[in-house]
Request: fold
Amino acid sequence: MQVIDPSIFKAYDIRGVAGENLTADVVEKIGRVLGSMAVESGVGPVCVGRDGRLSGPELKAALIRGIAAAGADVYDIGMVPTPVLYFATKYFGSGSGVSVTGSHNPSRDNGLKLMLGGKTLFGPMIQDIRRRVESEEWSVAEKPGKVEVKDAETPYFETVTRDIHLERPVSVLLDSGNGVTGPLAMRLYRAAGCQVEGLFTEVDGHFPNHHPDPSKPKNLEQLIERLKASDAEVGLAFDGDGDRLGVVSRKGEIIYPDRQMMLFAADILEKKPGSRIIYDVKCTRKLVDWVKSHGGIPTISCTGHSFVKAKLAETNAPFAGEMSGHIFFNDGRWPGFDDGLYAGLRMVEILSRTDDPTALLSSLPTAVNTPELQVPMAEGENKKFVERLQKEVHFDDATDEIRIDGLRVEWPDGFALARASNTTPVLVIRLEGDTPEALKRIEQVFGAALKKLDPSIKLPFSAE
Reply:
């Protein structure tokens, strides 16, 4: 029985500290299990790529060794954004791949995002890999699988640039945060017809300028500052492995993903009226109203890119998105995986139809809301707290109580959400009101309910 830190096996992926609980030895064993699963299911070759983290070369090599040792063939596609890895699994036809990436985690971290036979592995499937690694349940092939180096970036580049059509050149400022997207993003956006300026586009796994996580406003400060001195009409930011998008208007307004989704949804519903638009539990109520007013069917999902992707496959909706910045186009133009580079170009395509992108972005409905608030708890306690919340708490004046992922309480003038993070031991809270007064009331009512469950809880907002 192998002793491996079980905490690296997360809800959506495998993630840990490189060289500590995520060593080359551990990754090779995971590769052996994944290779065995690919052979058992007949879904090889397995495409393998990595982001720009310092530990990437060693961990990618270990993963490939493990997969090949189990008898599965491997396509090594090198250092590429995660969406290029997803593209490769479709382009080369197996649907199987692993991106060696720590995404937006600290620089010492790394991880694995996994696909097998066209399905993203998450939840119980990742726990099954853990069980098999611990019990050494893998194949040892008489003849190892073949390892071939393949170019996925060129066909990806050609596919994207063929698809995007701008009505006029748009000037964009791209911030890659020294993640893996930089060089490709600059070439891609120029080829699509944009005038491009770059910020932190050199790949550097130390992330010396800011953390590559566009969901946090502090990581957009340099982009906002540079926009003031630039002729760019919009700023786009990508996370460390390129599957998430951040958008900033010329005047420095952060256009959060749930508002980005309004533009994407309207564009898709114009061509596919009556379609489902999938959003996660953290998104604004304004998005629901917007989708309905544009003739679509808003459909709520659990938070987490793997869960959203599964909902997309289940419903065959043409579009999905979540508050963290994962955007999924499944509209016939793009095959349903989250891609920050492609989503950014779809945004630019929409903006190219107006002479004033700033006015269009600013006109999107907004509400008074909190950012994502977090309450640290002991490992596992956040999930126990949410289970009690779902069972014991009810609001007589609520219009809806949604329990698919934590508890989201809807009122006519706002909502409150509390859910357990699947990646860190925190309680995640988001609150929204149509007015400051509505938000204040919701803070008080929801805060009182949380305090009743646990009087010692330290709320990150005023419930007085």
